[in-house]
Design a protein that fits this description.
Largest sheet: none
Radius of gyration: 19 Å
Number of helices: 16
Oligomer: single chain
């Protein structure tokens, strides 16, 4: 499988361009004050879970994919562990800005932006990409809803096992994985062609696919709405956001490259881990900051600034990735 620089560059450019509808509608006051919360809820509770479930329905079960899923989980966990150790080593103190800086440096927007990016980049040519992305998101959620909450809040008591196990992303991954390893073939292929069951399953999966396809436009609209609420000087002059963006877009990208580049594993798996870990700062940082009394403004600026900078950093880090791989 070959990817080139221009393909990656135009993919990230046109993905970020999708923030414009949300930005314009919010500036025109067509989207009201809480539009980003409503759109985020649609992505989190409807579109993204459906996308994850359908990701496991793209191709039949195979031992190779199952093995790669385990490798993917282990390597993704390793990337997060290395980055968590890094931020606690270099970022000292326990004030609100430093707490946000740690969280923003470690956790990638692999759900809201990572999956849309992979969809645009690979299309239907490598359906297993979304299966590996779903695994990455599950590991991300485990770390984010434990270490992520702790980093942003600075309080160990905020960690709750039920937050990890009962969030919609984890539930959808469990459902998708169970169907994947038990049915072992896409649902649309299990019934005899032309039968009533075949008609029912086909229509059902079409409906699920419609919901899953909302992820890309809705997720980018959320970022556009948030961008409309920020003043340019607040984004450009926030030093903490620049440090967070550097750690997230450069340091974490390098960590992921060094971890996967020299391993004898699937090239598709290497690409998936690299690209998802190279995404901008996660939107969950704002959610946790609001919920647990953190610095929500710095979290928001870090997301927006890193998203804009990712237009440059993702293609450039891809060149580094290519040089080593």
């Amino acid at each position: 499988m070959q990817l080139d620089f221009l393909n990656v560059l135009f993919t990230v450019i046109f993905l970020v361009v999708l923030v414009l509808p949300g930005y314009i509608l919010a500036k025109a006051d067509i989207f009201k004050e809480y539009a980003d919360s409503v759109l985020s809820a649609l992505v989190l509770f409807v579109a993204q879970p459906m996308l994850i479930i359908t990701s496991f329905q793209k191709q039949p079960y195979s031992k190779e994919i199952a093995r790669n899923m385990l490798i993917c989980a282990g390597l993704t966990a390793l990337v997060h562990i290395v980055m968590i150790a890094f931020v606690f080593l270099v970022i000292r103190g326990n004030d609100a800005k430093r707490n946000i800086l740690r969280g923003a440096s470690v956790f990638a927007n692999c759900g809201y932006m990572g999956i849309p990016f992979l969809q645009l980049l690979f299309g239907n040519s490598n359906p297993e990409v979304l299966i590996y992305a779903a695994v990455i998101i599950s590991i991300f959620n485990i770390f984010d809803w434990s270490f992520g909450i702790f980093m942003v809040s600075g309080n160990k008591k905020t960690i709750n096992i039920f937050n990890i196990l009962l969030n919609p992303t984890i539930i959808s991954i469990i459902i998708g994985f169970i169907l994947f390893i038990t049915v072992r073939t896409p649902l649309v292929d299990i019934a005899e062609e032309g039968s009533t069951l075949d008609l029912v399953l086909t229509k059902f999966m079409n409906s699920i696919n419609y919901l899953s396809e909302m992820v890309t436009p809705l997720a980018m609209m959320v970022i556009g709405v948030k961008l409309s609420k920020m003043k340019l000087k607040d984004i450009v002059l926030n030093k903490v956001a620049y440090i967070a963006s550097f750690n997230k877009l450069i340091i974490m990208s390098l960590v992921s490259i060094l971890i996967v580049a020299f391993l004898p594993i699937s090239e598709v798996l290497k690409y998936t881990i690299f690209f998802t870990m190279s995404m901008p700062c996660a939107t969950s940082n704002v959610l946790f900051a609001v919920r647990f009394g953190g610095d929500a403004e710095t979290a928001s600026v870090s997301i927006l600034l890193s998203t804009l900078l990712s237009i440059v950093t993702i293609p450039l880090m891809f060149l580094v990735f290519q040089a080593l791989v």
